[in-house]
Each structure stands twice: as C-alpha cells, then as structure tokens.
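Thread: quick sanity check before group meeting

JM: Hey all, I'm pulling together slides for Thursday and realized we never actually wrote out the predicted structure for the chain we discussed last week. Dropping the sequence here so it's in one place. If anyone has concerns about the input, flag it before I start.
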Amino acid sequence: MTQLHDGRILVRASCERGADEARFMLALDDDTSEFHRRFSRDPLLGPSTRALRGLRTRRKATVAHATLRAICGQLIQAGRALEIERSVIRSCGEDPPTREGLARMSPAALAKCGLAGSRASTLTRLVRTLDLEALKQRPETALTRLRREHGVGPWTVGVISLQGLGRFDAGLVADLGLVKLLASLRGRWPEPEETTELLEPYGEWQGLASVFLLQGFKRGLIPGASTDRARQVRARASRAA
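JM (edit): ok, ran it. Output follows.
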C-alpha cells in the first residue's frame, strides 16, 4: 500500500480478492461524510471530526482475528494484550488467524500463551460454535448474536464490530480511554458503564465516535478534557479508596 501526494491510496495485490481485502482493512470504501456532517459542531466531538477527517479504523483481515484481539484486550493493559495476541498467532501458525486455526487450539494451549482461563474458554467456544465470518452477511442479527455469548460484553462487541465486521454502530463501552475522558470531564472517576452515556448521543455512529473521541482525547482536541486532569482524578480516587 502506498499513499500518494494527493491523498489517494494505491493498493497492490496479486489478485482481486487480495485487493478487496486490503480495501476492507483500510476502510477505503466507507463513506463517513454523514458522520462528519452531523457531528462537526458537536460540543465534544466537533473539533476531532474537523481535525482528523481522514481517520479510519484499521481492521483485521478476519473476524476471527478481531475476536482474538477483543478477548485478549479484556481488562488488561494494551501492551500486554498485544503480547498475548502475538503469542496466540505464533502458536496458531496462521497470520492472519482464521476461525479454523484458532479452533484447533485448546483452552490450555491458549492459557500457555497468557490468556486467563475464562477468556481462553470464551475464545475456544466462540471459534468452535459460531461462524464468525458469516456474521458479515447478517447485519440485522450479528450484534445480537454476539451479545448472547457468555464472556462477551459491550466493549468486546464494539471491537469485533469495528475491526472485524467493519461496522460503526457499536461503541467501545467501558474502554479505559473513554473512562479517562469521562473522568477528566466530570472531575471524578466514573464506573466503566457510564461511558454508555458518553456515546449515546452518537446513535448509529457510536463505534466511529469512540475512535474519534479516543484519538481526540490523546491529541488534546476534546474541549474541557485533558490526559493530565484524568491522571489527577485517578490519583485522587486511588488515595480515597
């Protein structure tokens, strides 16, 4: 892949399928103009939508890979989650990992890669009992189906939706970055579930709004919020605990 001086993306692939996969992973065919039109003047999101207009979610080639990433990322630091994900991929012997490749790994094998026992069991159950790739062809029921699974909460659904299904309607509820953003705005450390209120105004764009809010927060683009203030609020909450 090469980005030209005029902003266009040049994708080189050995076959049409490879080009299609690259376009999906880079979200090149997605029209987000309605998102930018609706929220360009939003009190929180507006500055980020204007400053980061070309921002896209980097997707995974398979829904199975997005599912692996989501399960690895539950309730642990991002760096450690990525280490576990890479360890699983090495053990699986496929990159990107497929449902079939992951299904060959037992919960014990996944645990050896660093996954907690309950998460290893969840991942094994998902890849062995659910046709993950077929969820792309079932937009009306895909998210409902995922939400029925034990061990799959709103954040996990959001990651699979954004990075695996290529959808923008499921927000990253309880994401630590959004918790920090909310703490900075409210001056107190919130419960993770309170991020639902933060994302609710963005309706069917909650997933993409999550991406812009997280990046905007990191870059100081969210009015009234700062990472420094979030750290101060967290420190006060820790001392009071």
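AS: nice. The two ends are 49 Å apart (CA to CA). Residues 78-92 form the longest helix (15 residues).
JM: adding both to the slides.
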